[in-house]
Write a structure and sequence with these properties.
Keywords: Cell membrane, Membrane, Transmembrane, Transmembrane helix, Transport. Pfam families: BPD_transp_1, BPD_transp_1_N. It comes from Deinococcus carri. There is one protein chain. The chain is an all-alpha fold and 321 residues long. The chain has 14 helices and no strands. The longest helix is centred in the middle third of the chain and has 39 residues. The protein is globular, with a radius of gyration of 24 Å. The N and C termini lie close together (11 Å).
Length: 321
């Protein structure tokens, strides 16, 4: 266990370093976005003052040292563009991202498990062929294209749902009306994200189910006259769900990262869209803070999977013991 904790710490240290150096490796400078199109016309003293204000006039190693020291104090710095604490901005956006990606993860897991199990149970039938073909098709469709098609159909051609945002601007809705307004704005992005992430869970569940149905204990149960319903629910479904659980726990860690493409297409005010805006504006502190939050959430998901999986599968306990 101590060895695994050490591995996670090394990954965290490496991620913190990458969070600092990768944004600075991108082409372009924050000055262009801070000073606008006239950055080339700025007097030298104004340019130097701007660099000094953001700390970009110091050597890279000094900037890195200050970044690590600030992290140790829990200080993520200030956004160049918004001039607000990065931590405050992350906390403001996080609930929207968790609502969007959490809903999509829950729906894709439930439907992926049910459809995957049924497809394997009816192997080589029409349901198996139809769901497998649909899964491969969905997996090959770009998420932004699917989102734009849904907008064109269900927001423009048939105006059933809002085109963008998470709430109707200046509506001042409260109570149940506000909940329904948010739910209507969620439909299209959640459906898009669910469809593009459904195939992973479906394929894992289908192949795990096929593997379990070929095991000796399933054949023995059938030979003893156990009903097909009991074979499905008691013997096959439970054991085949273990790989899906691992995928779910790993996906749980990516919830915080949001869906950059989906949130950008639907102008959804989550962390994913904020990451896109921060990268476009070369807002280094905001990028560093967002990437750090994503890194910590992924590591937390992996740690949770490491802890919970042996409790659910006795074979893992025996191997680790």
């Amino acid at each position: 266990m101590l060895e695994r904790v050490g591995q996670y710490l090394l990954v965290l240290i490496a991620a913190i370093s990458l969070n600092f150096f990768l944004p600075r490796a991108m082409p372009g400078s924050p000055l262009q976005f801070l000073a606008g199109e006239d950055v080339a016309l700025l007097p030298a003293e104004d340019r130097q003052a701007l660099l000094a204000r953001t700390g970009l006039d110091q050597p890279l190693t000094v900037q890195y040292g200050k970044y690590v020291a600030s992290l140790a104090r829990g200080d993520l710095g200030y956004s160049y563009q918004a001039n607000k604490p990065v931590l405050t901005m992350l906390i403001e956006r996080l609930p929207w991202t968790l609502l969007l990606t959490g809903s999509a993860l829950l729906l894709s897991t439930v439907f992926g498990v049910i459809v995957g199990a049924l497809a394997a149970w009816r192997r080589n039938g029409w349901l198996d062929h139809a769901t497998l073909t649909s899964s491969i098709l969905l997996d090959s469709v770009p998420s932004f294209w699917l989102g734009m098609m849904l907008v064109a159909l269900f927001a423009v051609q048939w105006p059933l749902f809002p085109v963008f945002g998470a709430q109707t601007p200046w509506s001042n809705l409260t109570g149940w009306a506000n909940v329904m307004d948010i739910a209507r704005h969620l439909v299209l992005p959640v459906v898009t994200l669910t469809l593009v992430s459904l195939s992973g869970t479906f394929l894992v569940m289908r192949y795990a189910m096929l593997s379990v149905l070929g095991e000796d204990y399933v054949r023995t149960a059938r030979a003893k006259g156990v009903s097909e319903r009991q074979v499905l629910y008691k013997h096959a479904l439970r054991n085949a769900s273990m790989p899906v659980f691992t995928v779910f726990m790993l996906n749980l860690g990516t919830l915080v990262g949001g869906a950059v493409v989906i949130e950008t297409v639907f102008a959804f005010p989550g962390l994913g869209r904020m990451l896109f805006e921060a990268a476009s504006n070369r807002d280094y502190p905001l990028l560093q803070g967002a990437f750090l939050m994503v890194t910590i959430s992924i590591l937390a998901g992996n740690i949770l999977a490491d802890v919970v999986y042996p409790l659910l599968d006795p074979r893992v306990r025996v191997q680790r013991g």
